Amino acid sequence: MVSRKAMASGVAGAVVLATVAASAAIFRPDRAVRVATGMVAHNVCSKSFVSGLDPASVFAETIERSGIRLLRPGLRYRLDRTGNIVDASVAGLFGSRAAFHEGFGCVLLHGGEQPYLLRSDVAALRQSRSPPLLAEIAGAAIVEPADPKLKAALDHAFEEPAAPPFRRTKAVVVVHDGAVIAERYADGVGVDTPLLGFSMTKSVVNALIGILTQQGLVTPSFPAPVPEWRAPTDPRRAIEVEHLMRMTTGLALDETNSGFDPSSQMVYLHRDMAGFAAQATLIAPPGTRWAYSSATTQLLARIIRDSVGGPEQTLAFAWRELFNPLGMRNVTLEFDASGTLQGTAYMLASARDWARFGLLYLNDGVVGGRRVLHADWVDLSAAATLDTDYGAGFWTNRSEHESARARVRLGIPRDAFFASGDLGQRIVILPSQNLVIVRLGDSVDPTGDIRGLGRLVSEVIAAKRQ
User: Fold this and answer.
1) Which letter does DSSP use for residue 48 in this model?
2) Is there a contact between 427 and 381 (Cβ–Cβ < 8 Å)?
3) pTM for the whole thing?
4) Which of 191, 295, 308, 435 could anchor a disulfide with 313, C-beta 3.0 to 4.6 Å?
5) Residue 6 falls within a domain, yes or no?
6) Which tens digit of pLDDT belongs to each residue from 385-419?
7) How far apart are CA 445 and CA 323, in angstroms?
8) Which domain holds residue 158?
9) End-to-end CA distance of the chain
10) What is the DSSP letter of 231?
């Protein structure tokens, strides 16, 4: 006969097992692991095939990221240059696969379903019939700083600390009065090497929306044209385009980079990223709550696609209206498997091209006498949202938020705003100094080496003032 104690112990054990099973069913740790393998596969694919970096080095740097470190012992990748494929898994399980297509970068594959493949002639799109509106910012050779203080600023930007987290700076470009006055690149990287911008891509989406606004095709204060929200009783009808830009939609799409959050799962687990994001429920009135969310930017990417007529038209629009006028030559735009611009994190461009993009905003949206962005667009983009230091597609020092005040204390002026991406990708726009400073790299410091950036900016300003 079973004792009461044994029965109680058995019941308790069953409850624990049931709780664990229920938690696993709700939180789906397998999905979080697949987010990690998807990130590894996609990043190794983009940085190896598009940037031309060493895949073993890329993999080693990628698995140092927060959230992936716990999986390092089992993480593996395989790069097939014949098939243009990168596979990643954990001990052979939870596999993800990314495929490279010349001119279009990489796309994650989802099961046996084939991704939408663009057929545009990217080389032809790059060959604009008109010369760039933006004057050339540098010649073919790397611009060595003539000022010893500028040289010291670059030295400091590339020097490594004695212990992790390491800086791993890949490129720095300093533009003053419209010309490069100093630049430096890591081994294996040059003036034409396209480098992954991560969330700086969101700032490019901001520019494309700004161009559509200038052309009268989109209005930030109008309800977002999202088909899934059109029902008369759907409260999401109140979400405006600007709410998407400022990440104040009130949708349950908060981003934590844990692998369990909907934004991370959208990027790496879903074929139609914006379609997934559009299903999110409302948890706060639009415009009242801020939460960082890649998913809201992806919805903007689909609005761009729908406004111009489709995937091929999106690519042509970006080259015709943005890249060619700025003289950006070494750019790769990646798309998700449904044919929507991957607007959250996956544009690659050379450091000089990222600097050219920054000049568009430094010059208030005007290039070569032509207004590319709506007249108040730059101020709108740099104005702080609610009580945060986030604007609309850019982070900003034009805020009373403690993070903005801390950056000012580091030497980054109060009027500065910047495009920012994971691992310390930055385009710092400094109107009062007539400067654009680009820093690209792979710092796993949780702040993206903000102290190093502050030192770089302050030292460049000091050298310029002497």
Assistant:
1) I
2) no
3) 0.93
4) 308
5) no
6) 999 999 999 999 999 999 999 999 999 999 999 99
7) 31
8) 152-465
9) 91
10) S
